[in-house]
Specification:
The complex is a heterodimer of chains A (233) and B (263). By secondary structure, chain A is mainly α. Chain A has one domain (2-82, 106-225): 3 helical TM bundles of succinate and fumarate reductases. Chain A has nine helices and two strands. Chain A has helices at 6-9, 11-37, 43-55, 59-86, 106-109, 111-131, 150-158, 161-188, 197-225, and strands spanning 136-138, 144-148. Chain B is α+β, with helices and mostly antiparallel strands and 263 residues long. In chain B, helix 2 (118-125) runs antiparallel to helix 6, helix 5 (175-186) runs antiparallel to helix 6 (195-208) and helix 8 (231-244) packs antiparallel against helix 9. Chain B folds into two domains: 3-111, Beta-grasp domain (Ubiquitin-like (UB roll), Roll); 117-260, Orthogonal Bundle (Fumarate Reductase Iron-sulfur Protein, Chain B, domain 2), CATH 1.10.1060. Chain B has helices at residues 33-46, 118-125, 147-157, 164-168, 175-186, 195-208, 219-223, 231-244, 247-258; strands at residues 3-9, 18-24, 69-70, 73-74, 96-100, 109-111, 114-115. The chains are: A mainly alpha (233), B alpha+beta (263). The structure holds FE2/S2 (inorganic) cluster.
Chain lengths: 233, 263
Amino acid sequence: MKLRIEAFLSSTGTKVVIALTGLALYAFLFVHLAGNMMFFAGQDKFNAYSHYLISNPLIYPVEIGLALIFVLHLVRAVGNFHKNQRARPVPYHAQVPVRHTSRKSVASTTMIYTGVLILVFVGIHLFHFKFGPELHVNDAAGQPTDVKDLHGLMVTQFSNPLMVLFYVVSMLVVGTHLWHGSWSALQSLGAGNVASTPRLVSTARIVTLVLMAGFVLVPILIFAFYRGAGGTP
Amino acid sequence: MNLKLLVWRQKGPQAPGRMVEYPAPDVSPDMSFLEMLDVVNEGLIRKGEDPIAFDSDCREGICGMCSLVVNGVPHGPDRAATVCQLHMRRFHDGETIVVEPWRAAAFPVVKDLIVDRSAFDRIVAAGGYNTVKAGGAPDGNSILIPKDQAEQAMDAAQCIGCGACVAACKNASAALFVSAKVQHLASVPQGQPERYRRVRAMIAQLDREGFGSCSNEGECEAVCPKQIPIANIAAMNRDYVRAMMPGPLALALGGITEAFEDD
Ligand code: FES
């Protein structure tokens, strides 16, 4: 069977693309969280790990790939949103949620908005930790080396309560997006039947909660136990 | 009981429409919703006014013609029922009831509360049938179909094509309708030869009609008078992926999704 271009442009195909890219980004978040957890292995180990990561030449294709997946997800989702808006030009005088078996929620009705907020967050986040001010690990003679002190940077950033608040709120937004997005992606790709869909939904939501709890805990733990310290608690 | 109606009035497809208020006095709680509208219309006709146009046929929940959004919910407050099966005892004295047509670009208003749902017919005409000549009726049980598959096909085939799924969806998506039409054939042996061609053709027509895409919220399932589950949409997507993607991708996705199909 040959690949037909309409496979990616039709309504169902668009949802398949959004689902595949969404799940790829979801998977990336697990890798990201595993990296965050390395923080608690100690300053030297964490800095060595982050140095190994960013000095690896493979990081560039991976970063570019990730950025492309992000952009593809966003572009197709925004296009889809506009098409969906056009599908109902005259709004209802009074439309109310049906409830009953429906899974309509704050999360499912705000996907486009939480998505845009996530885009803004990612920009700010990259500025905080990737393109922003840098700290460097000093060598024995007290001279800065080219090894970045990401551990120190995280402690500095998350010693500020406003920064902790910003990240916790941002993670709530991401979590809201994934509350609907995680299981919706699976359904778009064709997973589930009458019996298994409810299990699929609850599994996706539990996994999402665990993931988001992890991300929320990191800045809170740093604020609670490492605040103001150069590194070790 | 005495009620007030707030009804969408629109003279024709191009004319602008608006919500108009009508009194509905002396309504019996035993009337059906459509009988109540009949009585209001008789009053309008007596006064020389244009009666409120709305669709209906069987008035017993099997034909799919009636199509009113009552107080913001397609087919009104009762679940698993069409609006012709709704009775006035569901409302209380003095209430204002908002009545609107299905709202979708693909369902243009013909007049007042009547919309043109021929988009559904064109989607079915695009592939929602078997092209094989069936001949005379086959002997009973000459094609053996496992009970669960037969049930699945029957559940999907219950769709009466009323369009409430489109009316309820925030995207005016027809995914539930199309998935029901795809699935009732994909679930039985007779539907297999054209299974993948069918899903491709029907989704292509669906897009040409200007419906939105599916956000997997399930408002459609909740208003569906026949309670067709959105798991049918997953099954349709599964077939679509198999029909459209190159081997490895379809195999991978098909394999992943089949893992959720076990019971
Ligand atoms: S009039 Fe036939 S289903 Fe309501």
